[in-house]
Specification:
Layout: H1 2-20, E1 24-31, E2 34-41, E3 44-50, H2 54-57, H3 64-78, E4 84-89, H4 94-102, E5 110-114, H5 136-146, H6 161-166
Parallel strand pairs: 3-4, 4-5
Antiparallel strand pairs: 1-2, 2-3
Length: about 170
């Protein structure tokens, strides 16, 4: 029952995340115990995979890592059809997943999240600073208004929770 509640909460936050990006749900499918969701935004398409936790599969040893590797491999065949692909994974160590993903030449629209990263919406936390993406056209005016150069801005990791939430990528 706890896993069902966690999965439901993760799905709620993931729905908020893709809605905030402007996508709407087109279709939800089940493949074995995993969930696949398809979204659309204008002419752009997004695919979201949920890998089921081991308890839901009734496994003592977690074989999900191999399943995740299979899904990452599948994304290569979907590159032409989807602008963004999100893989949502259970509790393995994040380092193992990062190493798995680095082994593939994945496109910029590929993201992965652990369930624990989507238990709450990071944009709704009081302590979270407000972040906003500035267009290239407005960048010079913004920097001039502060009297600084781009190099003087603080560096923000691409794994920052809000950056990942919105799917922002460096230019």
């Amino acid at each position: 029952k706890d896993n069902e509640n966690i999965i439901h909460r993760v799905q709620e936050v993931q729905d908020e995340m893709v809605t905030d990006r402007g996508y709407t749900l087109v279709k939800e499918l089940k493949e074995e115990n995993d969930i696949i969701r398809r979204y659309k935004r204008g002419g752009e398409h997004m695919l979201v995979y949920y890998i089921a936790p081991k308890e839901k599969l009734g496994l003592k040893d977690f074989t999900g890592f191999n399943r995740a590797a299979g899904y990452v491999g599948k994304t290569m065949t979907f590159r032409e059809s989807y602008d963004d692909i999100i893989l949502i994974l259970p509790e393995w160590s994040e380092a193992n997943i990062r190493n798995l993903i680095k082994g593939y030449n994945l496109f910029p629209g590929f993201q992965s999240f652990m369930y624990k990263q989507l238990l709450f919406n990071v944009t709704k936390r009081i302590e979270a600073p407000i972040m906003e993406l500035i267009s290239s056209e407005n960048e010079k005016d913004f920097l001039a208004s502060l009297g600084i150069t781009k190099n003087q801005l603080p560096a923000i990791s691409s794994r920052d929770p809000q950056i990942a939430y919105y799917g922002w990528r460096s230019r």
